[in-house]
Amino acid sequence: MVAPPEPTFSTGQTAQDIVQLRDLWDLSSAFEEHAASGWVPPAVLDPNYIAPVNLRRVDAATGAAFLVISTILVVWKIVATQRTRLSSVLFLEDWLLLAALVGQAAYVVVIWIANGYQIGWHVYDVRYHSVLKLYKFTGIWNIIIIWVYSTSRASLLVSIRRMYSPIKTKIKPFIDLLVAAKLVYLLVCVFALVFYTPRHPGVTFDLVASMRHEGDLLELSIRFMAAQPAFDTLLLICPFPLLWKLKHLPERRRALILWMCGLWATTMLAGPNSMFAYCESLLQMGLQQAENSIGIYFSTKGYQKIAP
User: Is 224 within 8 Å of 231 (Cβ atoms)?
Assistant: First the structure.
């Protein structure tokens, strides 16, 4: 007679996982409430319980598609602007774009690797080993996202600065200041996320020490990402005092500036919602991709006739 298989929870979770997670997340109050109500993990009641669908694959596929689109546009931009390379600023602009592409490629790779550690929708779908790994990968891909965002925005800032080159305006040093602020912001975020003190042995990145007190897994990174629209608000309003001067710019350069202001506004409106609802982050990713794509297109067409 064949012995029945040893019972496990939905994703292979064992009693040891539950004990370790309780110690990591301070789940004693939740356990007491469930015990009082007679609640038990879903797999105990339903042996055919199906583990949650891994939505990280959607992120990976979307990120890969955006990577291909961005690579094509960046290569086209570099090739199309070869004849107008009269300023070293253009090289900075392109190198920042290439840095963003490298980060986007790294993001796709990390997401695919992390697919093996999907934890599920409920605490009883979680395996302790997966939590440790996901803490690490969450820290890595949040750093990468901030890297891509900061470098791509800095590149677009440099591009807009060059758009203003035919006219004399104090907006240029202001944009220089914003570019420097973006890069400083990037360094601060990287150091804060990398050297954040772990709250549990073996966790390389523990982004939320307050997890022990029912904190949000993405609390710290959300705070950093919420600071980014502060810079973008300045970018959004900076052309308005110069509207009367924009008529002196070539048509395509004027179109670039106005397009970018509109897209920044749309991205900022989508941003706060996506920070608190993970699935909607695809909307913000799409808006930022459109923003970068249109910016690259107009900057390329704008430089073909008038060199900076």
Answer: no
Contact 268, 288 (CB under 8 A): no
Q: Check if the beta carbon of residue 77 is closer than 8 Å to that of residue 299.
A: yes
Least-confidence region, from 147-151, 162-166, 182-186, 296-300: 296-300
Taking alpha carbons only, the member of 202, 197, 65, 206 closest to residue 142 is: 206
How far is it, in rounded angstroms, from Cα 170 to Cα 223? 31
Give the C-alpha separation, 197 to 295, whole Å: 39
Architecture of domain 56-303: Up-down Bundle (1.20)
Out of 138-142, 180-184, 206-210, 261-265, pick the least confident. Answer: 206-210
In one letter, which amino acid is 30?
A: A
Q: What is the pTM of this model?
A: 0.61
Q: How far apart are CA 1 and CA 103, in angstroms?
A: 56
Q: Where are the domains of the chain?
A: 56-303
Count of CA atoms in the C-beta half-sphere (13 A) of 41: 24
Report the candidate in 157, 153, 161 with the shortest Cα–Cα distance to residue 242.
161
Place of tokens 């400083």: 184
Q: How confident is the model at residue 212 (pLDDT cuts 50, 70, 90)?
A: very low
Amino acid at 180: A
DSSP for 111-144, written as a single string:
HHHHGGG---SSGGG--HHHHHHHHHHHHHHHHH
What's the CA gap between 91 and 186, in Å, rounded?
20
- Quick one: CA torsion of 25, 26, 27, 29, rounded to 10 degrees? -150
* CA Rg value for the chain: 24
d(CA 28, CA 36): 12
At residue 169, does pLDDT exceed 80?
no
Provide the sign of the torsion angle of the four alpha carbons 87, 90, 96, 99, taken in this order.
negative
- pLDDT, the chain, mean: 62
C-alpha distances in angstroms, 212 versus 45, 206, 222, 297?
Answer: 28, 11, 18, 47
